[in-house]
Specification:
Blueprint (H helix, E strand, L loop, with lengths): L8 E9 L5 H10 L13 E9 L2 E9 L11 H4 L2 E9 L3 H5 L1 H11 L5 E7 L11 H11 L2 E4 L8 H20 L1
Parallel strand pairs: 1-3, 1-4, 4-5, 5-6
Antiparallel strand pairs: 2-3
Bound molecules: guanosine-5'-diphosphate.
Membrane topology: Lipid-anchor
GO molecular function: GTP binding; GTPase activity
Family: Belongs to the small GTPase superfamily. Rab family.
């Protein structure tokens, strides 16, 4: 966490999960309210900022996106370093992306902060007819692992704001207690 003149505090959060689950589109929805049908990620880490008012505080969230690096298993500990929150994303229409969550959770626990706030996100909820993972399965995994959970659609802009805000509010709560 850092402080700057424009906001009360700034923190880093990361997006993680398999390739093509919708991470970039969730971020562009949240930071710029845009959606891209054919996102072709450039290789390298990218991030976006958004200022959010939580209570009396102005928080600047710096959210990092893998920008395609997860395809090559090239995510390193520096990606997670200093992050206070993570949106762990899978695609409800591709079971493999749900099965791989174990690997991502272990990695987050290994490299992330001990207080890391993790929100599990089942994206593409607009594609209900192609669903391979029941909402209940996501919820149960989240409960077992002590994570928050939400299904989203970056395409239809459903629950995107809510998923990020759930993470940000929790980070704010933890940070506030630490500063007391
Ligand atoms: P990333 O590799 O995890 O960053 O995934 P992208 O954001 O690049 O999205 C991968 C593909 O899924 C793109 O073709 C997107 O248009 C599509 N996509 C992303 N989010 C959604 C969604 O909520 N619904 C639908 N139907 N498609 C989505």
């Amino acid at each position: 966490m850092a402080f700057d003149d424009e906001c009360d505090y700034l923190f880093k959060a990361v997006l993680i999960g398999d390739s093509a689950v919708g991470k970039s589109n969730l971020l562009s929805r949240f930071s710029r309210d845009e959606f891209h049908l054919d996102s072709k990620p450039t290789i390298g880490v990218e991030f976006a900022y958004r200022n959010i008012k939580v209570g009396e505080k102005l928080i600047k969230a710096q959210i990092w996106d893998t920008a395609g690096q997860e395809r090559f298993r090239a995510i390193t500990s520096s990606y997670y370093r200093g992050a206070l929150g993570a949106l762990l994303v899978y695609d409800i229409t591709r079971r493999a992306t749900f099965n791989n969550l174990r690997k991502w959770i272990d990695e987050l626990r290994e490299f992330g902060d001990s207080d890391l706030v993790i929100v599990l996100v089942g994206n593409k909820s607009d594609l209900g007819q192609k669903r391979e993972v029941a909402e209940e399965e996501g919820r149960e995994l989240a409960e077992r692992e002590g994570l928050c959970f939400m299904e989203t659609s970056a395409l239809e802009n459903l629950n995107v704001e809510e998923a990020f805000l759930q993470m940000i509010n929790q980070i704010h709560e933890i940070t506030r207690k630490k500063l007391l």
